[in-house]
Amino acid sequence: MTRWWQRPWIVPFAAIVVIFVAFSIPPYLSFDPARSRVPQPPELGVAHFWLLVPHVLFGSVALVSSIFQIWPWFRRRHPVAHRRLGRVYVFGGVLPAGIAALTIGSLSPFGPATRASDVLLAVVWLYVTVKGWRAARQRRFGEHRRWMIRSFALTASIITNRIWGAIFVITLMPQLETTFHGDEGLLAWVASAATAWLGWTIPLLIAEWWLERDRSRRGSGTRRSAEPRDPVTAS
């Protein structure tokens, strides 16, 4: 059996999550709208901040609890804790964070393309998570695993979103006076839209690729085990 320390990705992933959450949460724990990192759209004003606070806090719960949910050693050694943390992930993380995201995403100050991405992400995130939870309730654990891998990819996409954001700002900033005619707002809209779409579609596509690869590998193993063995070569 693979030991927990033989999963070299779990420690750096956990470290990234802790650092990300430690950086993201403080402005919203202050409950001071002036410290929000997202501009307030005129349609909502300060109410936007009070929707953003639960989204950030519940989203952080989903992100932190996902560390243990995707950790194979933890799932095998602590199945009861895995189930309980799964409820925290779904009901104390994804569902409230996703519902809040539907509102704040539809009123994003970064333009219609970003709004469309944010709303679609929230819908897909809620959908795959509920499908995974229902599959577990019906004891269809293989299906549960596949849906939750998709859910995890979307949960973790908030981190890749920040990476894409930095890449696009650095790439597009030299074109501010040429392509964007000095309009910083237009540059922000373009960078935000590209970031919003790539931030979650690429992790989801990677998850689908991994699931298909895993399914093919499992299928090949099943076929090999079912093949009759040659008595000559077997001996």
Automatic annotation (TrEMBL):
Leader sequence residues: none
Regions that span the bilayer: 9-29, 49-74, 86-107, 113-130, 151-174, 186-211
Record flagged with keyword Membrane: yes
InterPro entries hit by this protein: DUF2306_membrane
Domain of life of the native organism: Bacteria
Coiled coil residues, start to end: none
Entry keyword set: Membrane, Transmembrane, Transmembrane helix
Protein name, entry field: DUF2306 domain-containing protein
